[in-house]
Design brief:
By secondary structure, the chain is an alpha/beta fold. It contains ten helices and 18 strands. Strands 3-2-4-5-1-6-7-8-9 form a nine-stranded mixed β-sheet. The chain has a four-stranded mixed β-sheet with strand order 10-11-13-12. It has a three-stranded parallel β-sheet with strand order 14-17-18. β6 and β7 form a beta hairpin. α7 crosses α10 (388-397). It is elongated. The termini are far apart.
């Protein structure tokens, strides 16, 4: 039966897990009958995260089932004990055959949430292919998605990523599910980021921030403070960027270092930002700003291991580069954001007021922003920047 777009549609009911950062990324909780794929590098903490989510949900007298295809039940219980979740009423199972999993679930009332850890270990007897192959992963996922749709169970599938950062498959599973989340984290850094890249029931590019502790993952309610660290230092080459991740304003520090070239070709090293965009900014600073920076070795780093993709970071990166090149630190208590065009002009960035509100909340008093940016009712001095030559002048003339 066909219907028009004007037919009344209701918002789906949500199942709040009780883990605020997880619920934020999913769009306000899990939708009954939906399938969610959680991907990430081995050892990043995917199993820890879902176990905490299930424990928090089951603690509110709801039903949650965790099926492990990689670990024995004793290993899952030991992890839960280390995290202080041994008494959580989560039902456990260990199986890899999808027919066995579904037949076992059919013997009891359907749970509210089902976790499969991991989808690469699940196989179906309908195929002769070995477990872990694309055909097995795709078929097993299809059977579990069909189970979710027919019973109203919210299914979470855990998947490992390949060396190039894709869900092992590759990409053969993502179109079957309703939402795809990536759990990211660099070894050596204690924070983890849960990022939505697909969500049929919410916004994409939303993030949740967690901190890895000895007893599991702790939610970070103020990630800007985590990524800024100690902002009292005024060394040249450091600039605070007021960014947006999904709907959340997020401040972080961009660090730059320029040094004389020791070899024939200038070296470029970038961590947390796009190397191609850095090359463009260097060319614009030379051509439009009158600097000779592109002939030097350039190192750029986003502090804390955060990865930035939005073009609004151009102005902060350029300011850090100019500051390092001229050995002049930026004014204390300032933030920057804005996109740099090839003409050298500074273009406005979206959600400017949200960025500035976050900066003011954290005690910043000055902002270098694209010309024409407005902020209402904020104790924050705005200085409009029209082009990169204006930025060079401002950094050189600012009182410190």
């Amino acid at each position: 039966m066909l219907e028009g777009l004007s037919a009344k549609a209701e918002e789906p009911q949500r199942r709040l897990t009780g883990v605020g950062e997880f619920d934020r990324v999913t769009g306000g909780g899990l939708v009954p009958g939906s399938a969610l794929l959680l991907g990430g590098d081995p050892g990043v903490g995917k199993s820890t995260l879902v176990l905490q989510v299930l424990a928090a949900y089951a603690g509110a007298k709801k039903s949650a089932v965790y099926v492990s295809g990689e670990e024995a039940l004793a290993q899952v219980r030991l992890r839960a004990a280390r995290m202080g979740l041994a008494k959580a009423p989560v039902q456990l199972g260990a199986a890899t055959c999808v027919e066995d999993i579904l037949s076992t679930l059919a013997t009891a009332p359907a749970p509210d949430i089902l976790v499969i850890d991991s989808i690469q270990t699940v196989w179906t007897s309908a195929l002769d292919a070995a477990p872990g192959t694309i055909a097995q992963v795709r078929t097993a996922t299809h059977d579990l998605v069909r189970y979710a749709k027919s019973t109203g169970v919210a299914v979470i599938l855990i998947g490992h990523v390949t060396k190039d950062g894709q869900i092992a498959g590759p990409k053969a599973v993502e179109h079957l599910v309703d939402a795809v989340l990536y759990f990211e984290g660099e070894r050596g850094h204690h924070f983890r980021i849960l990022r939505a890249v697909k969500n049929r029931f919410g916004a994409t590019d939303e993030i949740g921030v967690f901190e890895m502790t000895g007893t599991g993952l702790a939610e970070v309610s103020n990630p800007s403070a985590l990524f800024l660290g100690d902002s009292s230092s005024q060394a040249p080459g450091a600039a605070v960027f007021a960014g947006i991740e999904g709907t959340r304003p997020l401040l972080c520090e961009i660090q730059a270092l320029t040094a004389p070239t020791g070899y024939g070709t200038a070296r470029r090293a970038v961590v947390g930002w796009d190397a191609g965009r850095l090359a463009m900014i260097l060319a614009v600073l030379d051509a439009r700003g009158g600097l000779g920076i592109s002939g030097r070795d350039v190192y750029l780093n986003v502090a804390g291991g955060l990865k930035i993709a939005e073009p609004a970071a151009d102005l902060a990166a350029a300011a850090a580069l100019i500051s390092s090149y001229t050995a002049r630190p930026l004014p204390k208590g300032c933030v920057l954001f804005g996109e740099i065009a090839l003409s050298g002009d500074i273009r406005p960035a979206p959600h400017a007021e949200a960025r500035l509100k976050e900066a003011a909340k954290l005690g910043f008093t000055r902002a270098f922003v694209p010309a024409g940016t407005k902020a209402h009712g904020l104790a924050l001095a705005l200085e409009g920047i029209e082009d990169v030559s204006d930025l060079v002048r401002v950094i050189g003339d600012s009182q410190r």
